[in-house]
Amino acid sequence: MLHDPNRVYVFDTTLRDGEQVPGCQLTTPEKIDIARELEILGVDIIEAGFPVSSPGDFMSVVEISKAVKEPTVCALTRANRMDIDVAVESLKYAKHPRIHTGIGSSDMHIKHKFNSTREEILERAVEAVKYAKKSVEDIEFYAEDAGRADVVYLAQMIEAVIAAGATVVNIPDTNGYCLPDQYGAKIKYLKENVKNIDKAIISVHCHNDLGLATANSIAGLQNGARQIEGTINGIGERAGNTAIEEVVMILKTHATLGLHTNINSRNFYEMSRMISSQMRMPVQPNKAIVGGNAFAHSSGIHQDGFLKNRENYEIIRPEDVGFPSASIVLTARSGRHALKYHLERLGHKLDKDELYDAYKRFLTLADVKLDINDDDLQQLMAFKLVKN
Ligand code: KIV
Ligand code: ZN
């Protein structure tokens, strides 16, 4: 089934889990534009929507299925026939269709969401997979709230749905509850104890309630998962989903993990800006990989080290994620080297004394003006010429 055991498949759910966020709703044409960009980015699977939820979501899955060629197009369902029928219909133009069906797996969900029993839920899970399999070959099963599920029961459920035809088994940490070692151990247990696990790909789908979504996803991959689910900018329910750009860049930066994806990481910055503006969701400046300050150096010590050798303070090259360039920000915390660098960039070559003098005037200005731009520097130098 898997040709390359080290290949990690990237499943993007920006248009489904991401779009559930209040205020982030998109029109079908907007979703088509995003899906085309996701195809260029190189994602393997696009979760295009939850077709039974609304006519708009249904149409979006239909139109995205027509618009993209390479990625698998996936539609979400609950474990019931009506949801599955509607999803099958919505995927009829997809070159590579996938149904994503599933049900709760934790006792919390079984008792307090479904008012049911483990046995009954297991039956419903198997029935849903078998039913979906009659229409679509590629079936992904999600065991909702797997992060809090009893691992022995979870293993039983996963074995049964693979036997029923699931090609991918998704182990969501729906509530972002797990610690990385707990989540990793859960994936390892499934890998070692589910007899037919080699017939399916294990997928990780982590939420960020405790800020651990990326760490948990990596722990899952280290323990045998080979599909990662997430969104661009980490948008999603509550505190969001795993940020795809973070996982991909972790795998690239830590080549010793031996895992790789098909993602063109140089498109991340563009993609991030597109999602942010279309979904009206600003990216926090300190967001890893794509935040406005992700490659901005502002303290004197860092700037000095960066100017001596950028690798002193740069583990990812900005151009590798499509970021315009690294920046040396001038503030009252900046040092002489940073000022010299910018003045030379603007054509001012200063000797030691001139630089000393310019730096004193710079600090006076920087104490009142929070960040100093090129115009301020030109004025600083013009002031010096007038004075002389
Ligand atoms: O978080 C979750 O459990 C989900 C499932 C529907 C896959 O989004
Ligand atoms: Zn989710």
TrEMBL record:
Out of the domains of life, which is the source? Bacteria
Question: Record's Pfam families?
Answer: HCS_D2, HMGL-like
Q: What is its EC number?
A: 2.3.3.13
Pyruvate carboxyltransferase domain location is 8-269
Entry annotated with the keyword Acyltransferase: yes
Q: Name one GO molecular function term.
A: 2-isopropylmalate synthase activity
- Which PANTHER family does this entry report, sorted A to Z? 2-ISOPROPYLMALATE SYNTHASE 1, CHLOROPLASTIC-RELATED, HOMOCITRATE SYNTHASE-RELATED
Homology family:
Belongs to the alpha-IPM synthase/homocitrate synthase family. LeuA type 1 subfamily.
**Protein name per Swiss-Prot or TrEMBL:** 2-isopropylmalate synthase
Organism field: Mucilaginibacter gilvus
